[in-house]
Batch of 2 targets.
Target 1
Amino acid sequence: MPGTVVLLHHDIAVVVDADVLIRRAVQQLLADLGLQALAYGGWHDAVRQLARVAPKLRSLPIPSDQADWDAIELWQRLQQEFCSSTRGFSVLPVVGLSCRHTAFMEKQHPSQLLARQLRDCFYQRRQRAEQPVEEKPSVSPAEGRVLELVKDGCSNKRIASELSLSQRTVESHLHRLFRKLQVRNRTELALLAA
């Protein structure tokens, strides 16, 4: 896909363009419009990097007053403010990028992989937002102390030293926290605790 491409999903947009100045300008315009905008130089780089920032995207709160942008409306707005008629510019809604495979398509285009990542992030954000407060799991005082140190970026060895525990006990607390808070790694745990 030549030119600038913007993948749009609710309040998150991914800008893909080889020109760093153009993608930064589009990213800034999207941010000014109230969209969380990520920018990458190519499709494969976008897929790889988005996988790294997915935990941050999952932990973003869903804005209550956010107006959903229609892809055509956003394209018109960006065309007016940014693009010349000679440069290709596309806004693709993630919902329009099917994740189905056919017999002729052995391999998905990276845009479809990006779309799937964005859909997964939004689905998890919505699940967290809809989870009633009273059903959120309680954390014991010991787990809370471990959680605070994880949030500060401490290693298991440092946590054990700070709390006068064995490393095995710290690992046990972390395992229970992962299960209770439904996270997969320390990064997600730290982001959730922040």
Target 2
Amino acid sequence: MTEKKFKKPTKTTSSVDQASQVLCDRVTELRKNNNLTLDQLATSSGVSRSMLSQIERGQANPTLAVTFRIAQAFGITIGELVDQPWSTSAIEVVYGSDTSNLFRCDNECEIRTLSPLHMEKDIEFYEQRLAPKASLISAPHFEGTKELLTVASGQATVIAGETVSKLSTGDSAHYRADLNHCIENAGKKTLVCYLVVTS
């Protein structure tokens, strides 16, 4: 897998204020949309009423742990809590040139995330490339997880539990991913396929 170097963000007063305002607006919006009082949100999140009140007024800079508990109370991820990708545009683009979307990249396998990272709580969408004779072996995911694999180019063998299926270009397979499962390149050329994971 390729190593990625990340630049350490520089904190400024304006960036902190902006982040607090985003969180302030988001928590207030979600609480009202769910018809919750501050007391009810405090009970479900484990965050004190006074802290929640300060957050909604933009007077607090909560820790990651506090932000996580608030997100859990709404049944969403931290990314979904602090990020509003649809607020400024009706289209969200995942750029092919963005190397941060490479989940794996080596001589045998390349996996690129095609879905926005904040969506990966419920659905994941990947482009996979497997070299000849290479395979991608996976342990069981959470119960109820399923995968939908479509072969764009090449030949594949899909194994889920004790079941084996052969796929050619244009074929799709829908299978249980809460069992041991594997995708193999069964051809002599690079296998290109698209994988949707749902849970």
